[in-house]
Amino acid sequence: MRSLRRRSRIASLLTVGAVSTALVLSGCTVDEDSDQSSEDTTSATTTASQQSSSSETGTSESSAPSDSQDNDAHQGMDHSMDGGAAPEGITVDAHPTYPVGSTVTLTADHMKGMKGAKATIAGAFSTYTYEVDYTPTDGGKPVKNHKWVVQQEIKDAGTERIPDGTEVTIEADHMKGMKGAKGKIVSSTDQTVYMVNYEADGMKVTNHKWVVEDEIKPANN
């Protein structure tokens, strides 16, 4: 009888031990699964965040207009806001209709906002002035009937008036791609030619080159 009880107690202990071991192993498995699930969730969240960030950056870049689009939209109007000094060798007109410092109204429309703008004469010169066609050196579209370049802004121009149709090299840098460009004379004039300062569309333009006398009228007219 005592032996039977001992065997029963041993069997009970073995059963309890087996159950405890199973529970421990089960707990480890659950913890490992939980850790793996947490790692997977973290990885997925990080990946989604990276993809979202990449997508937002791409949208921002693609929505910004390129430099080339902006240059094409302003072709023919992209003059410098400061034209700089008059070219070397040009002759100052001693008795211009509009002396330096005069206030005038512009009738030219070379640039947006120019026509009708009030201006101040910054320089008056006696030379030959040309309307030209040219192809920009930066690969831009050919420019037709650009007004104006003066004799002193044309390579090897000499002192004589250049005939219409003559092929020339332009040394003026009024606009991007103009300096060094190959061009052709469209027309010319010997009117007094002026540099002017004016304001249009909130922008101040100084020493704009050029306007001829026919493109100016007194400010009170």
Automatic annotation (TrEMBL):
Residues 71-81 have a biased composition (Basic and acidic residues). Residues 1-21 form the signal peptide. Coiled coil: none annotated. Keywords: Signal. Residues 39-64 have a biased composition (Low complexity). It comes from the Bacteria. Residues 30-96 are annotated as: Disordered. Pfam families: DUF1541. InterPro entries: DUF1541 (IPR011438). Residues 100-151, 164-213 form the DUF1541 domain. The keyword Signal applies. This is YdhK family protein.
